[in-house]
């Protein structure tokens, strides 16, 4: 077997869509751009395409690195590449920056052609279903009628599920990893606290901070710190940091004393330099809105009745943000409709972030499924 390796140097691509997009909210975008990357080769009958959907802070940059920035490695590089579970010797893999994002696709930081200014707070609300619609248009642009699989973790898993609901004839397999059919009240609460941190930042300026030459850094830092706590398990935090003190003793200060404080502040600072506040607000609301059963009186099996795809559902034992029982709701809804579904609950101490990490058991499950799935 060829040793696993990176896809190497990659180059983002952009495509402009001039056809108006009617969003689920009723708003209309007259045009928009999507930024995407591809890995591997599309085969002659175009049957080997796999779409990878990103989570809240992800992007189109799934694997490989850039020629001018070799340290910028794709967020799922350990999964996608030659000899890896999603093997680019066999599959043509596509990663897309979601509409409303801040890594190249049209979003709040883009210029609104109607005003000549940044969209800012005027950028319309978007939903998971809207993202899937734009991804389908990108597939049309690339000449792909049907995906061999749509794959995603967390919010990406919600998009993968929505593909099976919106376009049942255009996807053969769905891999929903560390995901859920809707957010719990607790999850919505965490998102709201994070949003309030941004909305109440004096530098937010009602979402139009671009015109003021500012970034709501304090709000973004707090939002990321809050979110990051929920992505990790108590066990992983204890193992990494415990109650370790930076100075070896208590200094009775509001400055950094515990190593976990240092870690959270570092993550918050890093995120505030890379991510757009309005994109964060829009994306967390899209998470909150996702609920396929809502239009079926809360009946999830009824929502899944139109699915035709085979499913792989993966959860992680210590993921309390998207707990295993939420994944099992998806499994039960599929079984109710006599769909083919494989389920794996991976023992892991890493919490929600486990779907991004190297784990032999987890990767073996994915490798096995991708190696035998129908097309």
From TrEMBL:
Question: Which SUPFAM superfamilies does its entry note?
Answer: alpha/beta-Hydrolases
Q: Which domain of life is it from?
A: Bacteria
- The EC number(s) attached to this protein equal 2.3.1.46
Q: Which UniProt keywords apply?
A: Acyltransferase, Amino-acid biosynthesis, Cytoplasm, Methionine biosynthesis, Transferase
Gene Ontology biological process: homoserine metabolic process; methionine biosynthetic process
Q: Cite the GO molecular-function annotations of the record.
A: homoserine O-acetyltransferase activity; homoserine O-succinyltransferase activity
Record carries keyword ATP-binding:
no
Pathway assignment reads:
Amino-acid biosynthesis; L-methionine biosynthesis via de novo pathway; O-succinyl-L-homoserine from L-homoserine: step 1/1
Instruction: Tell me where in or outside the cell this protein is found.
Output: Cytoplasm
**What NCBIfam families does the entry give?**
homoserO_Ac_trn, PRK00175.1
Q: What does this protein do?
A: Transfers a succinyl group from succinyl-CoA to L-homoserine, forming succinyl-L-homoserine.
| UniProt name for this protein | Homoserine O-succinyltransferase
The gene for this chain is metXS
């Amino acid at each position: 077997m060829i040793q696993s390796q990176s896809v190497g140097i990659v180059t983002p691509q952009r495509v402009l869509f001039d056809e108006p997009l009617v969003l689920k909210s009723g708003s209309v975008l007259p045009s928009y751009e999507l930024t995407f990357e591809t890995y591997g080769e599309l085969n002659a009958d175009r049957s080997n395409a796999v779409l990878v959907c990103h989570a809240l802070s992800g992007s189109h940059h799934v694997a490989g690195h850039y020629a001018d920035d070799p340290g910028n490695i794709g967020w799922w590089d350990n999964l996608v590449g030659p000899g890896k579970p999603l093997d680019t010797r066999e599959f043509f893999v596509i990663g897309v920056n979601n509409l409303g994002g801040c890594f190249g696709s049209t979003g709040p930081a883009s210029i609104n052609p109607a005003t000549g200014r940044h969209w800012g707070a005027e950028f319309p609300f978007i939903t998971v279903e809207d993202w899937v619609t734009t991804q389908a248009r990108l597939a049309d642009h690339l000449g792909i009628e049907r995906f061999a699989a749509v794959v995603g973790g967390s919010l990406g898993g919600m998009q993968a599920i929505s593909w099976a609901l919106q376009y049942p004839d255009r996807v053969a397999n769905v891999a929903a990893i560390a995901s859920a059919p809707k957010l719990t009240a607790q999850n919505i609460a965490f998102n709201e606290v994070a949003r309030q941190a941004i909305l109440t930042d004096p530098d937010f300026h009602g979402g139009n901070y671009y015109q003021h030459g500012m970034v709501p850094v304090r709000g973004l830092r707090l939002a990321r710190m809050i979110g990051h706590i929920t992505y990790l398990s108590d066990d992983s935090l204890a193992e990494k940091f415990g109650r370790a003190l930076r100075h070896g003793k208590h200094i009775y200060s509001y400055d950094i004393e515990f190593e976990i404080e240092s870690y959270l502040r570092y993550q918050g600072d890093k995120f505030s330099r890379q991510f757009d506040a309005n994109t964060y607000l829009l994306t967390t609301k899209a998470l909150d809105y996702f609920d396929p059963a809502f239009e079926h009186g809360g009946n999830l099996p009824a929502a899944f009745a139109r699915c035709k795809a085979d499913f792989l559902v993966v959860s992680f034992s210590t993921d309390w943000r998207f707990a295993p029982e939420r994944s099992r709701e998806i499994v039960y809804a599929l079984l109710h409709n006599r769909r083919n579904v494989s389920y794996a609950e991976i023992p892991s101490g890493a919490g929600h972030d486990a779907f991004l990490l190297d784990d032999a058991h987890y990767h073996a499950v994915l490798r096995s499924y991708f190696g035998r799935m129908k097309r």
